[in-house]
# Entry
Amino acid sequence: MKKWLAAVIACFCMLSAAACGSGQTAEEPSAASLEASMTKNNWELTGNLDTENNTWHLEFENTGSEEMKLDFPDGQEIEVIITEEGVSEPVYSYSEGKVFTQAEKSVEISAGNIRRWDGELDADLLDSENSYRAEFRILAENLDAPALKTSENP
# Structure
């Protein structure tokens, strides 16, 4: 798909007893919640998966002193994919079953402001006995950033 070829930011979170990633900012507030973040010169991206409350959150903060414009190839701004550890087929994909416009889209974020996306998961989707990994992507084409990945083998 064309949108996956765009410059994307991804942060991968694995729910387990260990904290995320080496050399990356990541915190584990509780056993049922995991957060990972990426900071660049004028923005910060933070993703959170909370299996206790069956929710996910993704925030893009403009930490710079000027307005930022994010350019998207179509109406889909983000993607969230949740997989069970050791299983390749996702248990949740934000875009599954959704229809997005084909028109290009731009979003302006003023200095100091945050754009936030939230989602709820079906209560029976995640099993508390299993470990999960969440991949959060913002699909803006004009962000020059490498993928942020947490360690899959903590």
Observations:
- Confidence is low (pLDDT under 50) at residues 1-29, 148-154.
- The first strand starts at residue 9 and ends at 14.
- The chain is about 5% helix and 45% strand.
